[in-house]
Each structure stands twice: as structure tokens, then as C-alpha cells.
Amino acid sequence: MVDGVMLIALLVATLRAGAPLILAGIGELVVERAGVLNLGVEGMMLVGAVVGFAATIGSGSPWLGLLAAMAAGAAMAGIFAALTLGLRANQVASGLALTIFGVGFSALFGAPYQSHPIPGLATVIFPDLAAAPPLVQQFLLLDPLVWLALAAPFAVQRFLMRSRAGLVLRAVGESAEVAHAFGYKVIRIRLAATLFGGAMAGLGGASLSLAYTPMWTENMVAGRGWIALALVVFSTWKPHFVTLGALLFGFVTIAGFQANAWGIPVAPNLLATLPYLATILVLVLISRDRLRLKLNAPAALGKPFHPSA
Fold first, then answer.
1. Model confidence over 59-68: pLDDT tens digits?
2. Is 270 exposed, middle or buried (0-12, 13-18, 19+ CB in 10 A)?
3. For 104-156, how does the pLDDT look when each residue is reduced to its tens digit (9 = 90+)?
4. Rounded to an integer, what distance in angstroms lies between the CA atom of residue 65 and that of residue 35?
5. CB 183 within 8 A of CB 56
6. Which domain holds residue 23?
7. Residue 199 lies in a domain
8. Domain count, the chain
9. Nearest by Cα to 245 from 45, 25, 57
10. Contact at 8 Å (CB) between 212 and 23?
11. How far apart are alpha carbons 107 and 114 in whole angstroms?
């Protein structure tokens, strides 16, 4: 029988499993709202994970590791921006190349750190757990990155819908030419959005290697970058739907791990694929309204722009 403590533990585990997807997905949402399609999320997450892990071991501080991961993700995004915004290279091809580069670089750079465990990101926000009730203690054990992931969608929603800068960013994503005609620096705005998306992807990768499973293993992102990309599209570019999709992925992941404990016989290979299959299936069902997707998609998404064009 499942009691209240087990349910809360399942919810907490779901939040922890979904946090990396929320961070990466929200970052990519901002990028796409600016009219840029960066398919390199998987590679940026991998580089963020390995650089953050290495920086944590080298400095002894997970906070410096998180900063290093964000810087590494932003640097990867900077390469993408130089190719697509500066040289007007194809965004789809450049994003795929970025992922391939990230997979190879992370494997090479992370070889010395393979399966080297670390203590992980401590729960420093609520250090005194003894005085709290058992149910509350489950939530207090959440690391700061989970709380940040839960706050990020609200902050981005407010930025996009209720700030002048967010309005300008959305205008650039709808028509770069019109925004340029009104005097806005389209390239600078898209560059800022791309770097932000890279930093968030790097942070999402670091949340895997420093908090969720505090160790580095090759290709530990395991397709989450592609799921984050799918969440952005099928959520019709709305932050709260990205969050719901990420939490769905996290729930199925944790439920799969708990299936055998609940007496449900599930093959290990099926457990590994179940979160991805369930998430994609639900997203496909949600996105059957093609008109809704078309109306909500940024009109200039993936279209190159140059002031002199």
C-alpha cells in the first residue's frame, strides 16, 4: 500500500528528474522566441555536465562548477551564434554539428573523470531538517537547482509577456525585418537569447552530473536535450507547458524505477525506453491541432537575417 510519505517521495523524485529538462527547455524556448532554432541542446548539456563536474573536482566548490557549466554552455552557443548569426550558416545543420561536437568533446574531456563520484550539491537552503515533519523533510531535501527550475518558467513567462525587453524579443522572433526597421538591434537580441539558452542548457547538464546523479559518465544526458527540444515545440512555446512535459518525463522515469518494487514485472530494456516513449506519445496527442501549433510558432523561426540583406 502506498502511503503519504511514499507519494511525497515520488513527487520529490519526479521534480528532481524533471529539473534538467525544465532548465534546458526554458532556455531553448527563449532562443526560439527570438527566431533562432538551435538543435544543439544535447551537445550543450553534455559539455555543461562534464565541465561543471571537472570544475567542481578542481575547485572543491559545486557553485563554481555550476558557473563553469553555464559558461561552457554559453561558449558552445557562442560558436553556434558565430556560424548562424554572423556567417548566416544553416541553423539546422549548425545545431546538429554542435550536438555531434558536444558528444565527442564531452567524451574526450571527461575520460579522466569517468565514474568518479562526488558528494553532490548539498541542500543548503534548509540545512536543519530534524525539526521538520517527515512529509516536509522530503521537500526540504530538494537541491537548489530544483527550486530554480520551478521558478524559471514563471520568471520567463513574466519576462516575455510583461516586460518591454520581452516584447522586443518576441517581435524579433515574429519579423526580424520589421523589428530592424523600428531600430532594434536584431543580431544583438538574438545573440543574447542564444547565449542565455546555452547557459541554461549547460546548467541543465550540470544538474545531472552535480545533483541528480553526482558523477560523470559518458553520454549521461541520454537524449534529454532532444526531449527538451520536443517539449518546446509541442508546448506551443509556452513555459508552463514545457514544465508539465518535463515533469511527465520525470514521473515516468521514476515510476519505471519503482515498478519492480511495486510488484510490476517490467523488462529492464523497456524501463530505459519508457520515459521517452511516454513523453513523445503524450506530446504527439497534444499537438494534433496543427493550426494551433502554426499560430503559436514564431513566424521568423529558423530564418536567417542580416542588416544589410
1. 988 999 999 9
2. exposed
3. 999 999 999 987 888 767 555 555 555 556 666 666 778 889 999 999 999 99
4. 30
5. no
6. 4-122+134-296
7. yes
8. 1
9. 25
10. no
11. 9
